[in-house]
Amino acid sequence: MFKRFTRLYFLVPVFVLFTALTANAQWVRMTDGLPTSLSIKAIASNGSTIYAGSPDYQMLYVSKNNGLNWTAYPMGVYYIHCLALKGNKIFAGTGWGLIKIDTNTYSFTVNSFNSLYQMSIAASSSNIYVGTSDSNIFISSDAGTTWRRQSTAYNTIYALYATGSNVYAATSFGVFFSTDDGLNWTQSQYINWQNLSVIAKDNTILAGLPGGCIRSTNNGFSWIPISDFSGSVVSLIISGNKIFAGVNSYNSYSQGVLFTTNLGVNWVQKGEGLGYKDLLYINANDQYIFAGSYLYGIWRRPLTEMVGVENISEKVPIGYSLAQNFPNPFNPMCNVQFTMCNAGKVKLVVYDIQGREIQTLVNERLNAGTYEVKFDGSMLTSGVYFYRMTIRHGGSSTDGFTETKKMLLIK
């Protein structure tokens, strides 16, 4: 009798573990201190302090705790369309010009070219760049005290990206770039393409369009369309070795946010929970990625849910394996490694002791190799958790590999 009871005791948790599922980890809307209906078009961050601007209200919204609670600071008659940080100053582009905001007092001053519509801002280690709707880029090398005007034929400057002495501009007539701090500009090919966003990394330029994204590996001489998008790529950012894209699909189903680990060759969709929330801008600090949306305010998701899996070796292993997490016990971070001898669809999920799904760490197709993914248990209580990996090669549920392991979180 005791023996039969013991067998039943161990079977029940296994059954629950593999069948009881709750909602996957996803984006969460931040609401404390924000209006019910709010469009967020600009986001900047300094550690856990997040700044957000809206074209709907004449306010700068500030959170000191990664977006959980917000305070609104009046900005006079100015609606904020873009933001950039430089030292202890925030530069905010508005429909009536540029304002400079003190991060200690949140008082602001108006810059001299205050009659122009400010569309975009970027800051490098040496300069601040401001793009307008009337073919002008303003450049300051003294933190906004003086400005020089770079008159161009670039029409609307929708986005700017600066890194070192290189500056990239997404305009209504294609991408332009400068290699000398904005003194001289070169127009890329596809001059009739409207570009909404731009970013550059490791000799690759990515540009967002009203209908998707294009990629160049030769300074814009030629471009390759990327087929992963169904909507306008309105924002591109770099976080670590990843590039993230924010998508606006004009009230149809929104892809939300996608990321790439190989400079735009392949993209992984990470818009769970956003639904119809069309995005206007994205930004990230070292803990979270933030998304500003049309009418639905600002959303947040931990980067540990977004950055995906690292390929730590492309050498083809002899089989499949799921390693024990390390360290174990852990507090609060740990790593999980696994190997694949063939390409396949991988799903790696963490569950609690009751079989409830905590977080999906991996859910994508991967090539053969050795991979590592991080798990953050900072929001969990001490206890036993399980992680299960499933690899599928085709439609059959028996065609692949499945393994489950136990981990211990001690705080």
Could you give a short description of this structure?
With about 400 residues, the protein is mainly beta. Helix content is about 5%, strand content about 50%. Strand 4 (about 60-65) and strand 5 form a beta hairpin.
Task: Write the SSE topology.
Layout: H1 2-19, E1 28-30, E2 42-46, E3 49-53, E4 59-63, E5 71-74, E6 80-86, E7 89-94, E8 97-102, E9 108-110, E10 118-123, E11 128-132, E12 136-140, E13 148-151, E14 157-163, E15 166-171, E16 174-178, E17 186-187, E18 197-201, E19 204-209, E20 212-216, E21 224-226, E22 232-239, E23 242-248, E24 257-260, E25 268-269, E26 279-284, E27 288-293, E28 298-302, E29 310-313, E30 321-322, E31 333-340, E32 344-352, E33 357-366, E34 369-376, E35 383-392, E36 400-409
Antiparallel strand pairs: 1-28, 2-3, 3-4, 4-5, 6-7, 7-8, 8-9, 10-11, 11-12, 12-13, 14-15, 15-16, 16-17, 18-19, 19-20, 20-21, 22-23, 23-24, 24-25, 26-27, 27-28, 29-34, 30-31, 31-34, 32-33, 32-35, 35-36
Could you describe the 3D structure shown?
The chain is mostly beta strands and 411 residues long. It folds into two domains: 2-24 and 309-409, Immunoglobulin-like, CATH 2.60.40; 31-305, YVTN repeat-like/Quinoprotein amine dehydrogenase (Methylamine Dehydrogenase, Chain H), CATH 2.130.10.10. Helices cover 4% and strands 49% of the residues. The strands form nine sheets. Strands 1-28-27-26 form a four-stranded antiparallel beta sheet, with no helix packed on it. Strands 2-3-4-5 form a four-stranded antiparallel beta sheet, with no helix packed on it. β4 and β5 (71-74) form a beta hairpin. The model is unreliable at 1-24 (pLDDT under 50).
